[in-house]
Structure formats: structure tokens, C-alpha cells
Amino acid sequence: MYFPFMTGQWKRSQNHTHALPQGARDGAVIVNYLRSFFKEARGDKVGEPGVTETCHFSITFDGWLVMVWVHWYDAKSGAYNMESILDAAVNNKLSNIPYRAFLRNLQDHAMGSRLETLKDAVDQLREHTLAEQAQSSKPARAKRAKTSTDAVTDLLISPPSSTTPPPPSG
What we know:
This protein is of the alpha+beta class. The protein is 56% helix and 19% strand. The chain has one domain (6-125). Helix 1 crosses helix 4 and helix 3 (93-111) packs parallel to helix 4 (113-157). InterPro entries: DUF7924.
């Protein structure tokens, strides 16, 4: 399982016009995956995962300008959204200060509370999976054991009358 917290598209010769649709696609796929993952891990009892749990960040870069985007799913409208939240010119030190600070904050979030949330969800998924396997395997084991026991009992009670194989049907 992979849980990316940031993806990027770099299109030097085409600027952001080619990077944006690819970033939008990547973001929607990741947000959708995270929604599915949290729903499965927590079961149907909890409902729709929160936006902060499933949002995704991406960057687009054209060689001169880097743009930071946030992707999320709006449960009320049923739409995936993508919004630019920050941009910086790479040749302007002043515009890079907030960009670099944002990336450090995002990394801290990804390696802190977001990672803990994901770890908890992985543990919940493991528990649900083991419980489901235990429930589904009990009847199957009983059925297999009964079938094996019946076959042995039948063989002991009424052994085959001949060791010669039956003639082919046809």
C-alpha cells in the first residue's frame, strides 16, 4: 500500500497547461483511493472519511513557476476539487520563503498526524480482515472436515467391491 502525500508534474516546455490535467487526474485517483481505504478500514459504521484525512497535495512546475495544489472530495456535491493554494517564482527568493515554509509544514503534517491516522487505519483494516477471515473460515473448515470424515467413513463401512477401475462411459 502506498499513501503519497504529495505528487508533482514537471513540464518544462509546455508550462502548466499540460501539467494541470495530469495533476488533477493523479490527485483525484489518490483522493478516491484514500476514501476507499478509510471506508474499508473503518467499516460502513463511520461513514465518509474527513477531508483532512483524504486530501492530497500536488505541485506543478514549468521551470520558472511552481504551483501548489490541494485536492479533495466534496461529499455533499459528489465532486473532486482542485485548488491552487500557493505559487512561487523559482528565481525570486522572497516568493520562495512562504513556499519553503509551506513544504516544511506539509512534510511535518505528513510524517506526524497524517501518518498516525494512516497507521491507525491500517491496524483497523488488519483487525477487520482477520475477523472476516475467522468468520468465513469456520464454516468452511467444518464443511471440509465433515466431507473428509464422511468420505473415510463411507470407505470403511462399504469398501469398493473391486479394485478394477470402472469401464469408460461413452
